[in-house]
Amino acid sequence: MKYIQYIIFNIFLIIFLIFSVISYLVGAKPLIVTSNSMSPSIEKGDLVVIIKGDQYEIGDIISFQNEGLIATHRVINIDYSDSNESIKFITKGDANKNTDFSLVKINNVIGKVGFIIPFLGFIFLFIQSKYSIYALIIIILILLIEKIRHDKN
């Protein structure tokens, strides 16, 4: 039992350290995908690592601020028509039929998807949920019972 606990702890520690080092070195930002709008390229529950870029091209998957929310969609076209303002991107989720309603200004872009880690976002979503407290209590109780049983033997 202790060996399994040791392995699980070390796996989470290694994942945390990897993300910390990557974030520090390349200015990356991990985000959890909470919808299926980019399916099948990116699924709900995937963790995407966003890297700030100097320029973005058609086909890039970018994360951006849109009316207080963060969205991650593909650039399908670039609008250079407004000479007074910066470049704007026309974006669309791969699973969506239509393009996004509003154009994305370049200063609203957080960055583009550097890489995707499938399902890892579900773990972080679970940790943030109220159910994680219940799970933690159950795990502590199980470990406590195991310790008491082990000490008796």
Q: Please, how many helices?
A: 3
Total beta-strand segments: 7
The total domain count is 1
| Percent range of helical residues | 25-40%
Shape: elongated
- Order of SSEs: HEEEEEEEHH
SSE-based structural type? alpha+beta
> What is the CA-atom radius of gyration, in angstroms?
21 Å
Reported by name, the CATH topology is: Umud Fragment, subunit A
Under CATH at level 1, the class stands as: Mainly Beta
What's the CATH architecture?
Ribbon
Assembly of the depicted chains: single chain
Stretches with pLDDT under 50, minimum 5 residues:
none
CATH superfamily: Umud Fragment, subunit A
How far apart the termini lie comes to 15 Å
Supply database-style keywords.
single chain, about 150 residues, alpha+beta, Umud Fragment, subunit A, 7-stranded antiparallel beta sheet, 3 helices, 7 strands, elongated
Could you characterize the architecture of this molecule?
The chain is an alpha+beta fold. The protein has one domain (2-152): Umud Fragment, subunit A, CATH 2.10.109. 37% of the residues lie in helices and 28% in strands. It contains three helices and seven strands, in the order αβββββββαα. It has helices at residues 2-26, 120-128, 131-152; strands at 28-32, 47-51, 61-66, 69-79, 88-92, 104-105, 109-117. Strands 1-2-7-3-4-5-6 form a seven-stranded antiparallel sheet. The longest helix is centred in the first third of the chain and has 25 residues, at 2-26. It is elongated. The mean pLDDT is 87.
